[in-house]
Amino acid sequence: xxxxxxxxxxxxxxxxxxxxxxxxxxxxxxxxxxxxxxxxxxxxxxxxxxxxxxxxxxxxxxxxxxxxxxxxxxxxxxxxxxxxxxxxxxxxxxxxxxxxxxxxxxxxxxxxxxxxxxxxxxxxxxxxxxxxxxxxxxxxxxxxxxxxxxxxxxxxxxxxxxxxxxxxxxxxxxxxxxxxxxxxxxxxxxxxxxxxxxxxxxxxxxxxxxxxxxxxxxxxxxxxxxxxxxxxxxxxxxxxxxxxxxxxxxxxxxxxxxxxxxxxxxxxxxxxxxxxxxxxxxxxxxxxxxxxxxxxxxxxxxxxxxxxxxxxxxxxxxxxxxxxxxxx
Length: 328
Prior knowledge:
37% of the residues lie in helices and 14% in strands. It is built from 12 helices and 12 strands. Strand 6 (148-152), helix 7 and strand 7 (171-175) form a beta-alpha-beta unit. The longest helix is centred in the C-terminal third of the chain and has 21 residues, at 289-309.
């Protein structure tokens, strides 16, 4: 096999991932964001790139995929692959893979940390005390234990959130249109409207697809309790930001924790950033040293295995029709 050429769509990558590629004799090329379609086509074509180690969300559109005949595989440094045209990739026989849960633990930790913080009013109490308000004799909170936590998206991240929250005493309800078997400490709900009207906390962990875009809008928010909390660490467009802003500012929803936004980076003037009942972070829930190493090495190894042996881990493939075709 000729020397593998791998394009990394970011200037930063863990040293362990770099070593995986170097030990395999691969040549790595790095592009710094923001990355355009023209940049991708020009670089992949000029360098004969066989695999892409995709960080962030560069535009692997149909135009890009059809213009880059040397490209054989795309491996995401993480989970979300919504910037890739999966139909075009499938037609070209390009498997699009993710890092196989390498970021699941930190995202789950973040989700639970934020829901605990909001459930126990930590941001408000901190702000009020700094403003001179001592509420020792007047404040009365509510325990996290016993609250109903609804989870939409029950993959590796959602399952870890469920386990952590259940260990803290929450009642976990997972949404699925079809029940997926018994899981200790988890109740299944097949009706989304019923779930929304039941839960005290809603945590989103679903991928962005045509079915989940705008999943939580004005109608869905109106079904939730005014004391409920929304956590979103999936993708920003899963939630209608204008509707969420309205619900939070009018008392129709108690609080929200957001690590993702409809447009990233989000505008500093985004009204969600001005609300006192919202915790916001810049899409960093997966960003730990440990996860960066796991995600980078997983993506690099998957690219190398496929380029060298045509092997790919089926559970990590977003467009599994490609795998079916390769193994037929």
